[in-house]
Amino acid sequence: MRLLERDSNGEFSLTKDLVNNLPAYAILSHTWGDDNQEVTFQDLTERSGKSKAGYQKIRFCGEQAARDGLRYFWVDTCCINKSDAAELQKSINSMFRWYNNAVKCYVYLSDISIPDDKVKSQSEIDFESAFRTAKWFTRGWTLQELLAPSSVEFFSANYKRLGDKFSLEHLIHERTGIPVEALHGYDPTTYSVDERVSWVAKRETKHEEDMAYSLLGIFGIFLPLIYGEGKEHAFRRLHEEVERASKGHNFEDFSVAFSLSGVSETEHFVARETELIEMHKTLSGNSNRRIAILHGLGGIGKTQLSVAYAKRYRDSYSAIFWFNIRDEDSLKQSFVKAAKRILREHPSVSRLSGINMKENLDEAIDAVKEWLSLPKNTRWLAIYDNYDNPKLPDKTDPTVLDIQQFLPESYQGSIIITTRSSQVTIGHQIQIRKLENEKDSLKILLNTSRREGLINDPDAIKVAKKLDGLPLALATAGAYLKQVAMSFSAYLRLYEASWLKLQESSPRLPSYDRTLYSTWQLSFDHVNQQNRLSAKLLRLWAYFDNQDLWFELLQHGDFEDPEWIRELAKDELSFHGTVRVLSDYGLVEVDRSPQERIESQGYTIHGCVHSWSVHVLNQVWDYDLARVAVKFVGSHAPEEQAVQSWLTQRRLLPHAARCSYILSNGLVTVDGVAWACHNLGDLYTSQGKLAEAGQMYQRALQGYEKALGMEHTSTLNTVNNLGLLYTEQGKLAEAGQLYQRALQGKEKALGMEHTSTL
């Protein structure tokens, strides 16, 4: 590699061809102009070329490097002797590495010039428009010049610094389609071959073969250059070399035909691109074992994500095996199936050929593990699906499985584990959450219901919002609607009124091993075995809102309430420890709402899990737990003069709405909780929800009149507050009557001069 060296007079000259101990250097990225105006290697060796237009770019690069404390720099037009075919070929194959090793890369944009006299706001508008249309983004070679260096700075034609690839990352991403993560640090193992080829699709090169050659560094491969072979042939050689490099020399020696026979899979997989990229990044590499652990709520789509990964990257693996680790019997049968597949492709594997697969299951397991541990057999992928009953230090269940006993002994290969437990930590954990994009939810409904035009259907959107990004719930709804002549609005009405009956009558999905109403029973059973308090809390949660249940809200227990509730909330350690068990199985997540709070952070359960807890765990309605919920929410409503009372009031509103539903549907009697209804009325009033406040005051009034009588001061206080509410609503005649009643009652009970009367 030759460099340009700038002397103290600002002049520069070529160094000798350097091999080792290269000094720190800057490098130029630009677009070529007229070939006759670019400074060549011959120009510099003959000390000519200063009159050419391209000389100014070289001078700029040298001066900018000097400002950055760098004595050496490199420019492609003049540092390569292009008349020497061997040197040219070596340089093109080394180009990515040269840019990667540069301390600074200066991008000279010859078609962008922002005059000094423009006002700043207009200048920014002009710059962004010009930046997006810069010729530099259309050239094939500049792709690697963007990705390879760690520091890339952009300059205008009049040498003004415009920013770097980090400050301009969103503009660059919009213009090129290259992920922002790749700009922060290009890792070739993160992106598929097709994705990387797509980055150069809309670019151009002077020689058609250079479209392929410009990608050599992007893929980390080397090819001889054959100008004249044509673009198509060049790309064919590129793909062949990429495939050969990714598979390794022993790939075919251990190949087994791809098959997902017996694995439940969905016809149309939706979204999860971020998770797929993270999985690929985790599992990429040619040495050592790599494990990705997909954990999350049952029905969230862990299995389908694993299927999608296996399909997308099947060509990267010599063999892909699927092991159902739901229980020991299923796992052993999966190993037998794997043994038969290996034997079919490699009949010479003596250890397998002599085994009676029906009688010696353990021998078959050992033989498969041994084959996967062979020294050069490193490119396989094993998927252990449904590891939902893992061996953990505090679990005494005799049916637990220790996955370590079923992993190959040699530390090689790629492994995916799907589990509901967040305590499986033998690899890189990837939490699978609900689908955040509403359009992805609608796509699942569209694919499974076979109904068109859902993207803009308001009722379909309501169903998607109700099912809140849970793939199993969305697929179940779509499958049901495919079979019946029912509108989305009717489905939503049934979902809310007859949840369990609707789920039981929905078709079973071939892509999921459990139904919506049974899928969380397994997790609940494990929770119940591990911590009965956690199981009881999940049942109690049905009587609160699914969002944001926090420690202080449950601290209102007394001797009338079940003892376990007082035990649950005796201190923070007890509460968080109880919730942690639910969290371990993906049933509960930390509430991540951005709202300000003055008490501890809460926890949230998915809306579908909440419906399941209501209709399955509490199939027989528990009036005592309903009373507890109403009492706790009413007790926690802060007085108006409390510090930052509005924060707690706002936080309580969803739980107050749940209590209102319970009370209005006769799911708890007002006897004994009239005071809680009164407090809920105060809460609603403070938050401007006057209609809801009126309903609560009316219930409180009925309860007080029945329990304490018409003239009790508690009854009269509610009468007074109802009068205040009616005044606020402009119902002055009704308000006057209530004020009169309160006044007469207070005069009689407390006297004419009592402050409450006054």
UniProtKB/TrEMBL annotation:
PROSITE patterns: TPR. Keywords: TPR repeat. GO terms for molecular function: ADP binding. Gene3D superfamilies: P-loop containing nucleotide triphosphate hydrolases, Tetratricopeptide repeat domain. It comes from the Eukaryota. Residues 273-438 form the NB-ARC domain. Residues 25-145 form the Heterokaryon incompatibility domain. TPR repeats lie at residues 674-707, 716-749. PANTHER family: HET DOMAIN-CONTAINING PROTEIN (PTHR10622), NACHT DOMAIN-CONTAINING PROTEIN (PTHR10622:SF13). This is Kinesin light chain 1.
